[in-house]
What we know:
The chain is mainly alpha-helical. The protein contains seven helices and three strands, in the order αααβααββαα. It has a domain at 40-149: Arc Repressor Mutant, subunit A. Helices cover 64% and strands 7% of the residues. It has a three-stranded antiparallel sheet with strand order 1-3-2. The longest helix has 22 residues, at 105-126. One of its GO terms (molecular function) is DNA-binding transcription factor activity.
Amino acid sequence: MATDTDKMSPTEMLYAGMQLTRPLLRNITARVEADLDGTGISVGERAILEVLLAVQQATAPEITQILQVKRQLVGRLLKDLVARGLLKSIPNPQHSTSNFYRLTEESKAVIEGIRSTEMARMTQFVERFTDEEIRAYFVVQSTINDVMISGYGENDASE
């Protein structure tokens, strides 16, 4: 999708940028899959391991909420990771049907290695942008995500 951004209004440019989301997501997923080759970890499993690295312990509903994905997918991935010995399933005293999940030493080492490789590559890539551009990108992406979850609010175009 080649566009002449100099002739676009800010609204048109934002819309064009949002149109890049689907191919960007596909490309990111393909890159992550390629980088995970040989680790025995899938993209979905990587996401769960990364969440648990950050929060230490979580239930399936908490992981589902953090990742904003389907509950069934998280349940299937958790079951497989536990069966492979990559996660510990710990009874939850407050909810008998919703266990806590934690990384094992093995899975912690795996996800830390994956993240280390990714961050080294990101460090090279980040040099293409100024700090301000990266901060602006983060703010725009976060805001778009929030708006897509909650709706357009006061500025809803359908009103």
